[in-house]
């Protein structure tokens, strides 16, 4: 198989690799370089300024706020989403009534129906979901507050996205809503591959559902949970949080920067304020946060691999 | 991934647990106790599951309902049923609010980039999976490294790269960028897939005198069809739902894609006040993906969950 092999390899790789290098790798390298300059993005001229941008960043109050919010997105969001999803997946796969003569462990009736419905939001664009919930959160005419009025809770009319203390939570709730179903399906697949005899043994030993979950299901599912956590964290630090925050919270990212996340701040500095170099500096910080996050999760989650 | 996904149904069902329940039977007392506990828990789990199902479906139903109402009842009583079905919202959104243009742009961009992603992605993946050459590993990791870094970082210089090439605000420019950003996962997924295909068929074809590229297009691609479908659906949803790339690279009002168009519409409706038309547009944009999801449910779930387990 030697004849023409290299010509073939080069011919097949040139185009994909070229596109990827031009639009992904090259801009990526450039952005690290630009973070040491005073480039505005508006004119082609710039000069090297060393670590000035980084020093400025450390003194930038809004940067610290956005970092704090991004960390919330990376820690709280996966924690809530994954816990909920584990709970639902366990209900769906193991929470069923024990039928006489049936398998020891079974899902509730209609488990596949639940999985189909829960997955729904996952296929919708996060931009469309964000728009929809922006309307629902509207304090005067939105669906949520008028629902509260409808059930007699007239006094309870939060401003939601307009309240600096609430806005970030409202935005995160939307991401939880749209992502839980994905993890329910992911964990269900993992749970279904756990051998039934492990559950049988546990039941014979008199273990309740909670003990079964913590002693059998969770340890055997740990790898899936961990990679799901990293996956969700990367999404929450990047594209997804950009869309929800940019669309749902008006102005500079929530009242008093209360929802600004790092990606949104990069976008604003680059494309609104004409500070391209400073924007790439925040981008580098975001890269470091992302890598550190993945490393920490992998490290904390390290356990002996369980074979079954 | 495949290994946890495929054997999903059999163990749950066929784990013939009958012997054990029989073993449990002789001691009469525990089973009855267990049973009542089980049914309480059953009611509990159903309750919780139903509540979440309602929480998922209600906002979507609310959007559909609202899209048939007029503006005054949208604001006056958000939860009441429409007095009559205002289909004019839909036609107004389609024509006056430019939804038809946004749809067309989205179809062009996604169609072009989906084909490009699959062709280029499978070419690169095939070479990386099947041929030994210096730099193979390096190129592979270069590709899959793209799955984990924040796109926003590259987006600022990318804007100027695209601008310098004269591709800003153009459909084909967006297509090229979409392809580039879809390659990491596509190459990762298809490389693994091509490795699982048997080598003997390709070797036989080669011995019979077929060239490398002929072997690829006539033998390997048809064999890789299931993998191409999975990764194709994954990319379709991702590209159809893309928001960040067009927001940055495509600011020409005539070239907007759906997500962008809707967000712009929402901003401008704040002044014009055609909320019912906006809701109609919103629902309109949801329908194609929901329909695709219901039809290709299995493949969608497989394609998407494969992405999480690198």
Automatic annotation (TrEMBL), chain A:
Main location: membrane
Membrane topology of the entry: Multi-pass membrane protein
An annotated GO BP: transmembrane transport
One GO term describing the cellular component: plasma membrane
Ranges annotated as spanning the membrane: 7-29, 71-95, 116-137, 166-187, 229-248, 276-298
Key words, A-Z: Cell membrane, Membrane, Transmembrane, Transmembrane helix, Transport
Localization (cell): Cell membrane
Ranges of residues in domain ABC transmembrane type-1: 67-297
UniProt KW Cytoplasm keyword: no
Top-rank lineage group of the source organism: Bacteria
Family: Belongs to the binding-protein-dependent transport system permease family.
Full protein name: Sugar ABC transporter permease
The species this protein was found in: Streptomyces asoensis
TrEMBL record, chain B:
Transmembrane segments: 43-65, 102-128, 140-162, 174-194, 215-237, 275-296
Localization terms from the record: Cell membrane
Record's keyword terms, sorted: Cell membrane, Membrane, Transmembrane, Transmembrane helix, Transport
GO biological process: transmembrane transport
PROSITE patterns: ABC_TM1
InterPro entries: MetI-like, MetI-like_sf
Lipid bilayer topology: Multi-pass membrane protein
CDD domains: TM_PBP2
Tagged with keyword Nucleus: no
Pfam families: BPD_transp_1 (PF00528)
Region annotation Disordered: where it falls in the sequence: 1-36
GO CC terms: plasma membrane
ABC transmembrane type-1 domain location: 103-296
Keyword Transport: yes
SUPFAM superfamilies, per the entry: MetI-like
Similarity-based family: Belongs to the binding-protein-dependent transport system permease family.
Protein's name in the database: Carbohydrate ABC transporter permease
Lineage: Bacteria, Bacillati, Actinomycetota, Actinomycetes, Kitasatosporales
């Amino acid at each position: 198989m030697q004849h023409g092999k290299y010509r073939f390899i080069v011919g097949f790789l040139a185009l994909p690799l070229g596109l990827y290098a031009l639009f992904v790798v090259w801009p990526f390298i450039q952005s690290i370089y630009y973070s040491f300059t005073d480039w505005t993005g508006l004119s082609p001229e710039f000069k090297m300024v060393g670590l000035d941008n980084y020093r400025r960043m450390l003194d930038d109050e809004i940067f610290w706020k956005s970092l704090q919010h991004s960390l919330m997105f990376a820690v709280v969001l996966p924690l809530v989403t994954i816990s909920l999803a584990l709970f639902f997946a366990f209900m769906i796969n193991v929470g069923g009534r024990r039928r006489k003569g049936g398998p020891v462990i079974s899902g509730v009736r209609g488990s596949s129906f639940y999985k189909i419905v829960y997955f729904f939001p996952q296929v919708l664009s996060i931009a469309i979901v964000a728009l929809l919930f922006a309307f629902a959160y509207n304090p005067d005419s939105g669906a949520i507050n008028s629902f509260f009025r409808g059930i007699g809770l007239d006094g309870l009319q939060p401003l939601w996205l307009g309240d600096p203390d609430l806005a970030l939570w409202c935005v995160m709730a939307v991401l939880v809503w749209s992502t839980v179903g994905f993890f329910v399906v992911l964990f269900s697949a993992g749970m279904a591959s756990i051998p039934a005899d492990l559950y049988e043994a546990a039941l014979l030993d008199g273990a309740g559902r909670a003990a079964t979950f913590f002693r059998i299901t969770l340890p055997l599912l740990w790898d899936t949970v961990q990679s799901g956590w990293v996956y969700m964290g990367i999404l929450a630090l990047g594209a997804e949080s950009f869309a929800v925050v940019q669309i749902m919270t008006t102005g500079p990212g929530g009242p008093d920067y209360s929802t600004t996340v790092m990606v949104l701040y990069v976008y604003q500095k680059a494309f609104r304020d004409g500070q391209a170099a400073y924007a790439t500096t925040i981008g580098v910080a975001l890269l470091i946060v992302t890598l550190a996050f993945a490393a920490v999760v992998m490290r904390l989650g390290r356990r002996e691999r369980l074979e079954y | 991934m495949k290994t946890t996904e495929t054997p999903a149904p059999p163990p749950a069902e066929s784990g013939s647990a009958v012997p054990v329940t029989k073993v449990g039977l002789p001691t009469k007392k525990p089973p009855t106790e267990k049973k009542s506990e089980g049914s309480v828990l059953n009611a509990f789990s159903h309750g919780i599951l139903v509540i979440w199902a309602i929480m998922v479906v209600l906002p979507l139903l609310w959007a559909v309902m609202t899209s048939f109402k007029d503006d005054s009842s949208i604001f006056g009583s958000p939860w009441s049923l429409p007095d009559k079905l205002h289909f004019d919202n839909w036609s107004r959104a389609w024509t006056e609010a430019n939804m038809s243009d946004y749809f067309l742009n989205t179809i062009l961009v996604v169609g072009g980039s989906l084909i490009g992603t699959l062709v280029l992605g499978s070419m690169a993946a095939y070479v990386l999976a099947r041929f030994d050459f210096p730099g193979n590993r390096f190129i592979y990791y270069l590709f899959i490294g793209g799955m984990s870094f924040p796109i926003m970082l590259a987006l600022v210089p990318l804007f100027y790269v695209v601008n310098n090439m004269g591709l800003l605000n153009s459909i084909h420019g967006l297509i090229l960028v979409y392809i580039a950003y879809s390659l990491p996962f596509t190459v990762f997924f298809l490389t693994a897939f091509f490795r699982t295909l048997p080598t003997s068929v390709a070797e036989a074809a080669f011995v019979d005198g077929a060239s490398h590229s002929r072997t690829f297009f006539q033998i390997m691609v048809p064999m890789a069809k299931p993998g191409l479908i999975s990764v194709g659906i994954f990319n379709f949803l991702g590209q159809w739902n893309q928001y960040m790339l067009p927001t940055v690279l495509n600011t020409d009002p005539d070239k907007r894609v759906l997500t962008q168009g809707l967000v712009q519409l929402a901003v401008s409706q704040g002044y014009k006040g055609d909320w019912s038309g906006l809701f109609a547009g919103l629902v309109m944009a949801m329908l194609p993906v929901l329909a695709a999801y219901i039809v290709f449910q299995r493949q969608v779930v497989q394609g998407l969950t494969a992405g999480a387990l690198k």
